[in-house]
Amino acid sequence: MEIKPEIAERIFALEEKFKNSGQDLASYLDGLLYDRYLTYWDYLSIDTLLSLQKTLTHFPDEKIFISYHQITELYFKLIIHEQKQIIEAEAPDAGFLIEKYNRLNRYFRILTDSFDVMIKGMEREQFLKFRMSLLPASGFQSAQFRMIELYSTPLENLVSFKIREQFSKESSLEDLYENIYWKKGGIDLKTGEKTLTLKQFEKRYTARFLRIASEYKGRTLYHKYQQLPDSVKNNKGLKEALRNFDANVNINWPLMHMGAAYRYLNKDKETIAATGGTNWKEFLPSGFQRVSFFPYLWSEEELEDWGKEWVNHMFNTQKENC
């Protein structure tokens, strides 16, 4: 059989490649000869993926709850993937950064828009019953979301707003982490003690969170922008992309959680406790936390009014629908 010139050229190129790395081309060709054709379901591990939605109760809507949260965690993984590319990029230009932040914003827009699956896509009575089998697990325990925050901004920007002025970049990572804003959501309002949800979360992830905070100290998205040359830093499109990312993560995303919590856990002036015991009315409103990844991109007035307009609109809408 005659070997076409373009095929021979590729074979010679492969032979050179494997020779330079001390490998045997013939063995690799045997592997290709004996290997099965790749299928869609094997490549994506579809059977494994579809076997992961294991419910604890017989309520049909629990499957929706599990599937939605798993999808969310996959998007978080993609977000972290893009964050690391930005951080590791050497001398990135505005075009590269805008494209990456557009991806981050697209992921969060999809997540925010898809939250209707949670807000409108389950029967309230089913949710209030099957949720009791989830104790003390809570969405509060999403480690990947906390990692997104750690890759985005220094720990001093994540300290609880009411005491943030007491800390600075000179404070130890341990002190900053101990006073990080989301821990306040894991405190029992009646006893002042940490909930089991928070204790479990800290035991599982504290060492990892501190390792990330240490490894990326001075290297977060916050620092990456500050270190850019003025010609890139002053790009209007880039500034807008960063501001959108900040608002998507720290205003729009928690706002949608507020909508879901208000629908399922607040009825007829009665507030139902979250599964993990988190004090969600104090923890979720962005106006209470005032977390911003890039505070230098916002005016004092914007930071002072952080998320309030969105929260007021959401509460008024929810009341009208109840």
Quickly list its features:
single chain; 2 strands; mainly alpha; Methane Monooxygenase Hydroxylase, Chain G, domain 1; oxidoreductase; Tryptophan 2,3-dioxygenase apoenzyme; 322 residues; 18 helices; two-stranded antiparallel sheet
Give structural notes.
With 322 residues, this protein is mostly helical. It has one domain (62-302): Methane Monooxygenase Hydroxylase, Chain G, domain 1. Helices cover 61% and strands 1% of the residues. A two-stranded antiparallel ribbon has the order 1-2. A hairpin with a 2-residue loop joins strand 1 and strand 2 (270-271). Helix 6 packs parallel to helix 14 (236-265) and helix 9 runs parallel beside helix 11 (196-215). It is globular and about 80 Å long. Mean pLDDT is 88; it is low at 317-322.
Q: Strand arrangement, largest sheet?
A: 1-2
Rg (CA only): 24 Å
**Which parts are unreliable, with pLDDT below 50 for 5 consecutive residues or more?**
317-322
Q: Which architecture would the CATH scheme give at its second level? A: Up-down Bundle
User: Could you say what the CATH topology is called?
Assistant: Methane Monooxygenase Hydroxylase, Chain G, domain 1
Helical content stands at 55-70%
CATH level 1 class label: Mainly Alpha
Query: Judging from the principal axes of the Cα atoms, what is the shape?
Result: globular
Strand element count = 2
Sequence of secondary-structure elements: HHHHHHHHHHHHHHEEHHHH
Q: Specify the structural class.
A: mainly alpha
Number of domains: 1
Strand content: under 5%
Q: Indicate the mean pLDDT.
A: 88
Biggest sheet details: 2 strands, antiparallel
**How many H/I helices?**
18
| Termini gap | 76 Å
Pfam families: Trp_dioxygenase
GO molecular function, one term: heme binding
Protein name: Tryptophan 2,3-dioxygenase apoenzyme
Keywords: Dioxygenase, Oxidoreductase
